[in-house]
Amino acid sequence: MKKILRIISIILLIALVGIQFVPTERNQSDIEPKTDFLLVNNPPKNVSALLRESCYDCHSNNTDYPWYNKVQPITWFLEHHIKEGKSELNFNEWSNYSDRRKNSKLKSIINQIKDAEMPPASYTLIHREAIFSNSEKEVVLDYMKRIRDSLK
């Protein structure tokens, strides 16, 4: 029995080391497109900073990766999470959205921030600075509501 456990442990260790060499796609770009939400809407600096810190890692084309991003299988989880986030909303492509889609996205942003669904707990567990205080939440919500109202 001990021999079987030792063999299983060795196989798992080899597999864990082996997956470290599997390449992954990084979500990084030095280009800030003219279609970006922050450039198009020119929010106040405090709103801009809050969105960059709490939203842009998963909802833009440029993720600021943490130190642990090179450890598999964590990298796969991050890659999946970022792709999923960008498929729902990519702030870098904001002005490419139709007014109807922008309105829908703004409603979703407002509701998810209000309900504390965004940023998600899986992100804020490690990125504590991304959690909105009550006053920060109100600032972001008020701004998003103003943008939404301007589309009507």
- Counting DSSP H or I runs of 4 or more residues, the number of helices is 7
Strand content: under 5%
Helical fraction equals: 55-70%
Total domain units? 1
Q: Could you give the distance between the termini?
A: 70 Å
Q: SSE order, as H and E?
A: HHHHHHH
What structural category do the secondary elements indicate? mainly alpha
Overall, the morphology is elongated
Residue windows where pLDDT falls under 50 for at least 5 positions:
none
The total strand number stands at: 0
Radius of gyration: 19 Å
The largest β sheet comes out as: none
Report the average pLDDT across residues.
Answer: 91
Can you tell me about this structure?
There is one protein chain. The chain is mostly helical. It has one domain (36-151). The chain contains 7 helices and no strands. It has helices at residues 2-18, 37-41, 45-54, 74-88, 99-114, 121-124, 134-151. The chain is elongated and about 70 Å long. The mean pLDDT is 91.
